[in-house]
């Protein structure tokens, strides 16, 4: 299974989208803060592009979200019974 289709990665991206929506920030607004085109945000959110840890930090800082708090909101991250199988 390709890692971009791993259910854990899907949950991670879904949480990233929920965070942006909860702040009522558009893809365009986020992309402007990141200094990237809107298509970059869309590709990450549509699973056309994978995000790395450096980009994640920039993304979360742009949304004013503490990275550790964000990760704890992802169910599989904080679960003791999370499967590491792919």
UniProtKB/TrEMBL annotation:
Alphabetized Pfam families for the sequence: HTH_3 (PF01381)
Gene3D superfamilies named among the record's database cross-references: lambda repressor-like DNA-binding domains
PROSITE patterns hit by this protein: HTH_CROC1
HTH cro/C1-type domain location: 16-70
UniProt-recorded Gene Ontology molecular function terms: DNA binding
Protein name (record): Transcriptional regulator
